[in-house]
Structure formats: C-alpha cells, structure tokens
Amino acid sequence: MSKLTKHILRYFQAQILLTFVIVCLLNLVTIGQLKNKTIDSKTETLSIPLREQAKIQEQWLKLRLERVLPELMRKHKVKMWLVICREYNEDPVFFSLVSPTTFAARRRTIYVFNDKGEKEGIERLALGGGSNNGLYTVYRDPETENRELYGEGQWALLKKLVTERNPENIAVNISSTHAFSYYLLGESYYEKKDYVTAIANYSFAIEIDPQDINSYYSRARAYDKIGKKDLAKLDRQKYEELKRKQ
C-alpha cells in the first residue's frame, strides 16, 4: 500500500471516528433533554435517523476530499491518482472515498483524482458508478452515446482522459502482500488481451498465496491463449485439487 493511501486511510478513519463521536454526543444530549418529557405516559426518546447520520458523514467526506486530499497529493507530488475497483472486490481505500450510502463499486468503478493546481483544486471524476450525491463528476465520452461504461470502452475512455489531462505522473495502488490485488490486475490485463502480463500477475498472486484457487484457474485460461497447453493442464489440475479440498 502506498504512503499516500496510508495517509488518506489514517485521516479518513480519524474523521469517521470523530463523526461517530459527534453523532453519539448529539444522541445523548437529545435524550437527556427529553428524559422527563412524556407523551401518553410514555417516555419520549429521540435519535438521529440513519439518513441524517449519512448526510453528516457525507459532509465530512466532502470536506476531506476538498481539503485533506489536495494536501496529501501535493505532499507526495502526485498529479493524478487512480483508484480502480471491481464490484465486491474493492480497493481497501474505496469505502473512505465514497458516500456512506454506497455499499459496493458498480461493475468496474474508476475514480480519477487530477490536480489542476491551487486555484482549481482536485478534479474528481467517476468512470463507472454514480456521482455519490455530487462528490464526483460522472465522466462520459462526449463523442459517444452517454451510457454506462463497461468493458473495453471504459479503458479506452480512461486512456483518452489521461491523454487529455497529460499529468506529469500517475499514482496507482499496489500491494506486495495481498494476493487478490495481483489477481485483479491479472484479470484486467486478460481483458485487454495482454495474456503474458496477465500470467505474470497471476503468478505473483500464487507466489504470495499458493492456495489462491482463482489465480490457477485464470492462469490456465491465459496459458491456453498463448498456446502453452501443458502449463494450462498443470494449472487446471492444481485448480481441481484445491477445489476438492474446499
């Protein structure tokens, strides 16, 4: 996990904890004020509805994205930061960047944070998924039909966006200890038909976790694509062996 990601997680976790404490205190104050108030001989209590709590958390998130994120990106000299997630296989930082009413990425969700300078601030774009109640600008290719992004079209639009913005550097989140991260990277290269790089990433995942059944299955598919049938057969055998143990 990069230093930038660690800093963001720490800042965001602290802010979430602070929000939780504030909400709890508000509940205690409200309950204390109404402790002796009765309606129909029943004690009335009041708590903040979940929707209202979500609004408070969302306001904190908006401030963090506007104030904390620019400071951290500039501290680490990052001009563009990409956070790429798959539905139900999200980057650990994902839930610190989205509204509390967002429970998962949408198919593949790509968040682009582009530093446009002190005056214009950080541009926040979503390629896939929604705007999170205005926290992000949903980005679509103005030259094509305005529909939800998926598959190769999503990567093509990301390439076009990066070319247009032309940042000095790009930061992405990687992990040397999380096998599933390499598996997901392998899947992305497989979809791009870069089977050799996909195999390399599946192999990294297996090196970290020799019991990673999904990486054996996917590496076998990739070996088939480049004509290495013997290696594909060995991976399928390992896949079946691990499957029987589950």
Could you give a quick summary of the protein structure above?
The chain is globular, with a radius of gyration of 23 Å.
3D architecture notes:
The protein is α/β, with parallel strands linked by helices. It has 7 helices and 7 strands, in the order H-E-E-H-E-E-E-E-H-E-H-H-H-H. It has helices spanning 3-33, 50-75, 152-165, 179-191, 195-208, 213-225, 229-245, and strands at 38-39, 42-43, 80-86, 108-115, 122-127, 137-138, 170-172. The chain is globular and about 55 Å long. The two termini are 30 Å apart.
Helix content: 40-55%
Give the ordered list of helices and strands: HEEHEEEEHEHHHH
Question: How can the largest sheet be summarized?
Answer: 5 strands, mixed
Shape: globular
| Ends distance | 30 Å
Trace the largest sheet across and list its strands. Answer: 6-5-4-3-7
Question: Any idea what the radius of gyration is?
Answer: 23 Å
Detail the poorly predicted runs.
33-41
Whole-number tally of structural domains: 2
Q: From the structure provided, what is the oligomeric state, counting identical versus distinct chains?
A: single chain
Number of DSSP helices?
A: 7
Total beta strand runs: 7
- What average pLDDT do the residues reach? 79
Strand content: 5-15%
Class inferred from helices and paired strands: alpha/beta
Q: What labels would you give this structure?
A:
246 residues; 7 helices; single chain; 7 strands; Serine Threonine Protein Phosphatase 5, Tetratricopeptide repeat; alpha/beta; 5-stranded mixed sheet
